[in-house]
């Protein structure tokens, strides 16, 4: 990576194209979420922070455990950065109560100020997934959910600056580099 790498190299990806063909940039906002401490979580909590966000559920038997391990590693690497945090949205609010999310978060050994585990109604969570350009749905038998292993990187202005498959080592390295670009 050269000394000239800047945020210009990271495009703003949070946009929609309107009926006239114009690109309309939008921001990631929060309303109606509760964190693992039972506290209201809003857009105010993300202002002046760079963060990565993902969707998961605590009983996930497939991709969530390796995703969690990678996220723990990233949280540890950037633990001294005051302007960096992580946000994980549960897609199973029926099971993932505040107390379940609290226990799940405590098991990571990452500070609650650095990693927020959020829950909201299913509708609110689906609306948030649309902002992050992802989706999820339960398996037909109700035993699991289909969901993505991608995380989004969001800048201090609440714009998405990148998507990364957290299960692909090259993407994880690119994510770490891009976090550092935004922090600088």
Layout of secondary structure:
Layout: E1 15-17, E2 23-25, E3 33-34, E4 40-41, E5 50-56, H1 64-77, E6 84-90, H2 98-106, E7 115-118, H3 122-131, E8 137-138, E9 145-146, E10 150-154, E11 160-165, H4 169-183
Q: What does this 3D model show about the protein?
A:
There is one protein chain. The chain is an alpha+beta fold and 184 residues long. The two termini are 14 Å apart. The longest helix is centred in the C-terminal third of the chain and has 15 residues, at 169-183. It has four helices and eleven strands, in the order E-E-E-E-E-H-E-H-E-H-E-E-E-E-H. A hairpin with a 6-residue loop joins strand 8 and strand 9. The mean pLDDT is 89.
Please tell me the overall pLDDT: 89
End-to-end distance, in Å? 14 Å
Total count of strands: 11
Name the poorly predicted regions: none
Radius of gyration: 16 Å
Outline of the structure:
The chain has helices spanning 64-77, 98-106, 122-131, 169-183; strands at residues 15-17, 23-25, 33-34, 40-41, 50-56, 84-90, 115-118, 137-138, 145-146, 150-154, 160-165. It is built from four helices and eleven strands; from the N terminus they run βββββαβαβαββββα.
């Amino acid at each position: 990576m050269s000394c000239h790498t800047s945020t210009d190299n990271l495009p703003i990806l949070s946009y929609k194209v309107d009926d006239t063909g114009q690109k309309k940039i939008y921001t990631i906002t929060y309303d109606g979420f509760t964190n693992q401490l039972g506290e209201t979580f809003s857009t105010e909590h993300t202002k002046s922070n760079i963060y990565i966000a993902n969707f998961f559920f605590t009983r996930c038997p497939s991709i969530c455990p390796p995703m969690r391990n990678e996220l723990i590693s990233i949280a540890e690497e950037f633990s001294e950065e005051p302007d960096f945090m992580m946000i994980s949205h549960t897609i199973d609010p029926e099971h993932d109560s505040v107390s379940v999310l609290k226990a799940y978060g405590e098991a990571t050994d990452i500070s609650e100020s650095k990693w927020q585990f959020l829950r909201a109604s299913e509708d609110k969570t689906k609306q948030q997934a649309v902002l992050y350009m992802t989706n999820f749905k339960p398996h037909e038998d109700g035993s699991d959910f289909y969901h993505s292993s991608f995380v989004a990187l969001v800048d201090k202005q609440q714009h998405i600056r990148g998507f990364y498959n957290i299960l692909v080592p090259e993407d994880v390295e690119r994510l770490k580099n891009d976090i550092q670009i935004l922090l600088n």
